[in-house]
Amino acid sequence: MWHLLEPLHALLDYAPEAFDEAAALGYDTAERWPSYFAWRSAPLGAPGPARVASAFYSFSPAMVARYVPGVGEGSDEVPAADPAAVLAARLRAVDRTYRAVLGEDTVKSPELAEAAALARRAAEAAGTEGRPLAAANAALPWPEAPHLVLWQAATILREHRGDGHLAALLVAGLDPVEALVSFAAIGAAPEPVFESRGWSAAEWAAARERLTARGVLDADGAVTDEGRALRAEVELRTDELAAAPWAALGPEGTARLAELLGGPWLSAIGSGLLPAENTLGIGKV
User: Is the pTM of this model over 0.90?
Assistant: First the structure.
């Protein structure tokens, strides 16, 4: 279900309509990070870089500080946060993007409305205790339009899963940069993709050394059997922590939602907007 829903959420980070909305707010759109941090952190209010770095986990705090202003601060690249304005622009961006990518007929279809209702049921069953990003998005009012409901449900569910994934990483004893180094080592994506999270070469090398001493990597930096087992345990625990919404929706409801998401998923993946190599585990057809 995550693989079906994540592309529908992730369109916001790459669509030209979203960059248009971000530019209207004053964000520099020469790269995607200013708007990415704005869209994703806005439900938290105006938390400042330290809280965002904590909640996002895998990004270097130095990188977060570049793109997330302190309370009341701002720059030419990243204006001072107005969470209400960002959230309103976020929904406008999703509306425009879905109409462009999925098409007007799909957006207005009874099938999409049914998918939105099912996804909302799952999202409303997602517990938010100890899950700051899921809780912040779940606290937002639901929009009326079904396609916006679908996006918001997908966002709550992906942040619910993501918050649980961070708990699994903590239990596994993997700090933010170690999590990226070990994930790259098992072939999830090339190292340069993960290096986009802002860690320096020295920080990356130090994490590799720690993982080698621990037996997660061998002397050449390749993952060991122990390292693969550790990452498999992280993914298993992540799945387990993400299971409650789907248990609440039930096998029939989940299967029906999966069926209904097929067309929108193909449109999102086939749009060419999502990069083939990314940290999301999704790609282009």
Answer: yes
Determine contact, residues 29/93, Cβ cutoff 8 Å. Answer: no
| Contacts by residues 108-112 (CB-CB < 8 Å, ≥ 24 positions apart) | 111/260, 111/263, 112/146, 112/147, 112/150, 112/260, 112/264
Q: Are the C-beta atoms of 156 and 123 separated by less than 8 Å?
A: yes
Q: Considering its fold, how many domains does the chain have in total?
A: 1
Which is higher by pLDDT, 98 or 48? 98
Residue 187 within any structural domain of the chain: no
- Positions of E strands within the chain: none
Which H or E run includes 17? helix 16-24
Q: Do the domain assignments include residue 247?
A: yes
How far is it, in rounded angstroms, from Cα 121 to Cα 255? 14
Helix count and strand count (H, E) for the chain: 15, 0
Per-residue pLDDT of 212-256, as tens digits, reads 999 999 999 999 999 999 999 999 999 999 999 999 999 999 999
Q: How many CB atoms lie within 10 A of CB 141?
A: 7
- Which residue segment(s) compose the domain that 96 sits in? 2-168+239-270
